[in-house]
Design a protein that fits this description.
With 245 residues, the chain is α+β, with helices and mostly antiparallel strands. The protein has helices at residues 20-23, 45-54, 63-66, 97-111, 126-135, 192-207, 235-240, and strands at 5-11, 27-33, 41-42, 60-62, 71-72, 94-96, 115-121, 156-163, 210-213, 216-222, 230-231.
Amino acid sequence: MKHALLKLTLGLVLSAPVLAHAAAQAAESYSIVLNQYGLAVVSDVKVYQHMVKHDAKKEMLDLSSTIPDIKLQIVYATDQHFVKQKMYSQPKAYLRKVAAEALKKAQAELKSKGLSFKVWDAYRPYAVTERMWALVKDDRYVADPSHGSKHNRGCAVDLTIVNAKTGAELKMPTPYLDFTPKAYHANTKLSKEVLANRALLRRTMEKYGFLAYNEEWWHYNYAEWGNYELMNLSFEQLQTLKQPL
């Protein structure tokens, strides 16, 4: 089956004086092969680099570098989850620059209270979503690759709140990845302490531009996620990209 091509034209802003040969290259076109579902998924490093060059907010930032005091426990880099297989090659957490910077501000607010975020998941390469779907074809638990995930866009984060000194988690409605109705935001049959902790997480995240996902208390989407493409760059590829072109 012949896949359609999506043309991306990236105009370059040239300062004067402009060389003749540079002017001739003022616009560069790249093609993204649409996948079997008709989705444009960025898998080419050069396409990603030029996107970042023309919109710095699209850069993917490593949270361990951007927010050094944030806690990470990347569950999918282990087999200790419902899929029972290691999904990530490394325990890494990336977000788009705009989302990472918003999370950094939220972390600073928590830090002033002696608290910290602990991140369980962030950017997920599209190929991982495909692998997960092949193992668990149930959109109650994993994203259907025919739609893609906000994690694939670098605009979703799964997290909780911990004591900054001890790392102890604040009590929340359920453990991470409990997909029962107990994890829904609509669930109010909880202790005052748990309700307050969940509310603190939601209030802090929403203050800095994230939106709660109604069925998972731990999952937050950056509000402007629709401006960012589905991505299929590996953690190893992202690590090699110190600077955009």
